[in-house]
Amino acid sequence: MDEPSSIAYLILMSTFAYLVFWYTRTRGLQQTLPLPPGPKKLPFLGNNLDMPSSFQWNTFSRWAEQFNSDILHLRIAGGDYIILNSHKAVTDLLDKRSGIYSGSWDCDILVLPYGEDLKAHRKLFQQQFHPNDTALHQPHEKKATVVFLNNLLDTPDDWLAHMKHMAGALIFQIAYGIHIKHKDDPNIVAAEKMMAVLSAAGIPGAFLVDVFPILKYVPYWFPGASFKRKAREWNGIQSATVTPPFMEVKQAMANGNAEDCFSLRCLRNVKNPDPRPDRLSSEEEIIKETAGTMYEGGADTGITALRTFLLAMIRFPHVQRQAQEELDRVVGKDRLPDHEDLDKDTLPYLRAVIYECLRWQPILPLAFPHLVDVDDTYKGYHIPKGSTVISNLWAIFHDEKIYGPIDVHTFEPKRWLLKTSDVERGEKWKINTNMLDPTTLTFGFGRRVCPGKHMGLSSLLINAASLLHSFDITPPLDEFGEPVMPKIEYISGMLYHPVAFECCIKPRSEGHVALVKQALLELGVGP
Ligand code: HEM
Q1: Ligand 1 atom nearest 174 alpha carbon
Q2: Ligand 1 pocket, mutate which of 84, 124, 301 (most atoms under 8 A from CB)
Q3: Which terminus of the chain has fewer CB atoms gathered within 10 Å of its CB, N or C?
């Protein structure tokens, strides 16, 4: 061997020896490290019997206290589960180590896309649904809200149906450029059927499999495995829902009369389209699936948030009045609120109300499970590769160290506000930016953070502002004219929404009615 090649050989061998040493050392170290604490595991059964079937976040919080640890380990159906109960643990792992904590389950019944195509889906979102490009969603949000307000004027008791229609119509407009006018539009009917299958309220098993995806491997005949039959049903319905509207866009594009929308923007960039109008190339299939996830990810989450908002407005009338005073001062009575008004410096009280809704009753109390791709260590504990990592957002949102000293179980928007001396503008408050912004938790973490986050928040804000600007929201009256206050009761599920309740939604004045009618005319979106 000549000299240079023997040096190269030596370097190669020492690098190899070092890598072997490092690997065995870290593997050895990891395997000697304990798992995070948690309830005692039974042979074969692990923690299966410890798991409550509802409101799991309360049990996780109790265990965190009992084991004095913000990170817990459970073994359920043979799978490893890591439960994170503090903001620090969630940020350290899911945000800072997002590169290895962003895996996903290939789970049949999950609301959102999982599997190999995930990266392609996210790329399309990044390219064609960018947070700075508000033109793709805000004008449609405004229109959908005005139609919603008008429907409330006509049949206020049907508020939930109107809300669902508004959320569905908005997504169809943005995803496919399709104008949904009637509540029995076949697209909406199909989409609602799809979401009904997913509704955790009706299918506790489905909720459990979302949170504990390993359960999907239990056999069909297993007692309680009815969610598996639902999953089959779901696959068929999902395809029947997302294919027709996408084919409409492809056809309209070929005819040269497609409206600007997410699908069209993506289709324009396709390198290898299938020339047949009723077929899709693999590239087009990915766009179809991605557009489909907009409804799955964006419709029910937004409705859940608005339902909590309405409930809070009924239960806390003084909060409603303060928000209306702010809207009257900033927006006035001659126009409806616009997106430009929704900045946290412009309507700080409204912003505080929305933040408080997101915190008080989190839309997804356990966020979405992530998978860890490799063995890891945290706080001296071993985190096994393949563990499902669950963030207990409920615990974080009710952590007194973060959201105290005002009682964290009380609905109190003032916890978000600081007094200001800007008396000239009539401002009393500004948002306390030192308080942990709930939108950094509500929409998930790291590489998997919700790609519709910007739209989710802006649509929630414009709806809340417009509702309070035009209407008074009060409890229903009984036969003696006495108010019947709805209870603060929630249904345990992946999406956390209140038990059905009634409310009175009345226009604040004739002037407010006229404003809605006028806006409807101006936007050219007659009922
Ligand atoms: C208030 C409204 C919304 C909430 C609370 C919400 C929340 C979430 C959460 C928690 C996740 C999982 C993030 C993670 O794994 O860490 C997610 C993912 C997702 N969201 Fe949203 N979202 C909302 C609105 C929307 C909207 C309007 C759209 C689309 C137009 C959307 C589309 C999606 C999609 C496609 C995913 C899957 C992303 C992935 O798995 O990579 N969401 N959302």
Answers
A1: 30
A2: 301
A3: N
- Whole-angstrom CA distances from 77 to 6, 42, 63, 74, 391 are 54, 11, 19, 10, 19
The residue contributing the CA closest to ligand 1 atom 2 is: 456
Helix (H, G, I), strand (E, B) or coil at 326: helix
Q: How far is CA 467 from the centre of its chain?
A: 22
Give the integer Cα–Cα distance in Å for 147 and 159: 12
With 0-12 / 13-18 / 19 or more C-beta atoms within 10 angstroms meaning exposed / middle / buried, residue 464 is buried
Pocket-forming residues, ligand 1, beta carbon under 6 Å: 112-113, 118, 122, 293-294, 297-298, 301-302, 305, 363-364, 367-368, 370, 442-445, 448-452, 455-456, 460
Q: What span, in angstroms and rounded, lies between the C-alpha atoms of 447 and 451?
A: 10
Tell me the residue ranges of DSSP E strands in 235-315.
Answer: none
Closest atom of ligand 1 to 104 CA is 40
Q: Which of 227-231, 279-283, 339-343 has the lowest mean pLDDT?
A: 227-231
Preceding amide of 451 cis, omega within 30: no
Strand (E) or helix (H) holding 231: helix 226-255
- Taken in order 318, 355, 499, 462, is the CA torsion positive or negative? positive
Helix (H) or strand (E) holding 89: helix 87-90
Residue pair 265/242 in contact by the 8 Å Cβ criterion: no
Half-sphere exposure (CA, 13 Å, Cβ side) for 122?
A: 13
* Residues 309-361: tens digit of each pLDDT: 999 999 999 999 999 999 999 999 999 999 999 999 999 999 999 999 999 99
